[in-house]
Amino acid sequence: MTLTLSRPGERLPNAADAHAPSFAATLLENGKTLTRSDPQVLQLNLGKLCNLTCVHCHVNAGPGRKEIVRRDTLERIVDWLAANPMPTVDLTGGAPEMAPDFRWLVEQVRALGSHIIDRCNLTILVEPGYEDLGSFLAAHRVEVIASMPCYSPDNVNEQRGDGVFDDSIRGLRLLNSLGYGIRPDLPLHLVYNPNGPNLPPAQDDLEADYKRELRAHFGIEFNNLYTITNLPVARFASWLKRNGHLEDYMKLLVDNFNPAAVDGLMCRDTISVDWQGNVFDCDFNQQMNMHLGAGDNPLKLWDVDLGTWKQIPVRTAAHCYGCTAGCGSSCGGAVV
Ligand code: SF4
Ligand code: SF4
User: Fold this and answer.
1) How far is the CA of 244 from the centre of ligand 2 (A)?
2) Number of domains within the chain
3) Residue of 43, 59, 238 to test ligand 1 pocket, by largest number of atoms within 8 Å of CB
4) Residue 212 lies in a domain
5) Contact 54 CB / ligand 1 (< 6 Å)
6) CA distance to 34, 114, 261, 283, 291, per residue, from 27 (Å)
7) Residue of the nearest CA to atom 3 in ligand 1?
8) Phi, psi dihedrals of residue 294, rounded to the nearest 5°
9) Domain range enclosing 80
10) I want to staple 41 with a disulfide (CB 3.0 to 4.6 A). Which of 69, 129, 270, 335 is the partner?
11) Which of 61-70, 90-99, 128-137, 148-157 bottoms out in mean pLDDT, i.e. has the lowest?
12) Cβ of residue 14 lying under 6 Å from some atom of ligand 2
C-alpha cells in the first residue's frame, strides 16, 4: 500500500493510531512543543539488507531485501555534508556494513571531519567476508553502538535467531581485542531493547548488570548501555497485532507518557535520511513513509537548506508515544 501525505505535520493513519489519542494533542495538553534545535546528527539509513531477521525489527530488514543505497546517492549526500558540516554521522540499516559502498562512505566522512557511529548487530563482524571489518572500523575511529538485547543466550536467540548470542559474543570479543570498549578513542556501547511488549528497566541498573555478567562469564568490556523502547512500527507492530498485544502495548506507552522526555527527543537535533536520500525526522518515521516533502515528493537531503530547516514541523503519530514513555527513548538510550 502506498501512503500519500499532503503536508508536513499531518498525522499518518497506522495500526497504533487506532489505540492512542493524538500525540500532538497530548503534547499540547502537557504544555510541550516539539521544536527543532540546530542539527547535530546526520543519520543515514543505508538500506534494509541485513544478515538477521529479528522479531523486533522496525525496518523489516533481512537477507532478501533489495533496498540498498547506491554510490551516486552517497556521492550527493557526501557533497551536501561537505557544504553543511555535521558533528556526527550515524550509520544504520539493516546492517549498514553490508552496503557495498560502506567503507568508501566512512573514508569520505572521516576526511570531512565528522565523528562516525556504526550501528552494528555484532554478528556481521564474524560473517564470512567481513573478517577485517572490525579492524577497518578501529582504523577509522568509528564509534560502535551494538545491539545486545540480553547478557544470556535464551532472550537473544528468541528475539534475533538461533546462534545469534554466540556470534554476538564472538563479535564483542573481536572488538575488545582491537581496543573497543577499552581505549578512550574506540567507544563501544551496547543497546538493550525489551523482548516483548514491555518498557525497558532503569538504564543505570541494567548497565551494572550487563557489565557484571558480561565481564564474569565472557571477559567482555564495554562503555555504556543504552535502553531503547520498541516502537510499534513494521515487524514489531505486526508481532504485537498477531499476538493480540497491540492495544495493551499502546495503552502502556500512553499511560507512561512523560512530558520531561520531550526536550530530549532525537528528532529535535537529527536529520534522518533513507537509502534513496529522502529526509525524515527519524528512522521510525522512515518506516512509516512520513517524509518531509510535499505530497508524493519526498524532500531530498541535497535540497535541505539549513537556514530554514528548523521551520519544518516535526511529523508525529501514535508510535511517538514509544519515545516519550517512562524514561524516554532515543538512539542514545533513555533521555531523562
Ligand atoms: S533489528 Fe537490526 S539486526 Fe535485527 S533484522 Fe533489524 S536491522 Fe537487522
Ligand atoms: S518517533 Fe520519536 S524521534 Fe520520531 S518523530 Fe516521533 S517522537 Fe520524534
Assistant:
1) 24
2) 1
3) 59
4) yes
5) yes
6) 8, 33, 11, 21, 21
7) 121
8) -105, 135
9) 36-237+264-317
10) 270
11) 148-157
12) no
Please state the length of the chain: 336
Which tens digit of pLDDT belongs to each residue from 190-241?
Answer: 999 998 899 999 999 999 999 999 999 999 999 999 999 999 998 899 999 9
CATH number, domain of 57, equals 3.20.20.70
> Residue with the nearest Cα to atom 5 of ligand 1?
53
Distance from C-alpha of 270 to C-alpha of 290, rounded to nearest angstrom: 15
Cβ 314 under 6 angstroms from ligand 2: yes
DSSP alpha helix (H) spans, 13-69? 23-29
pTM of this prediction? 0.93
From CA 15, how far away is CA 151, in angstroms rounded? 32
Report the nearest-CA residue for atom 4 of ligand 1.
54
Q: Is the Cβ atom of 57 under 6 angstroms away from ligand 1?
A: yes
For residue 193, being part of any structural domain is answered with yes
CB of 319 sitting under 6 A from ligand 2:
yes
Single-letter amino acid code for the residue at 208: A
Q: Per the domain annotation, does 327 fall within a domain? A: no
Residue 250 CA to residue 19 CA, distance in Å, equals 6
Q: Cα(335) to centroid of ligand 2, in Å?
A: 13
CA distance 22 to 18: 10
321 CA from centroid of ligand 1 (Å)? 22
What b/e sequence results for 216-247 when a residue is b if at least 16 CB atoms lie within 10 Å of its CB, and e otherwise? eeeebebbbbbbbbbbbbbbbbebbeeeebbe
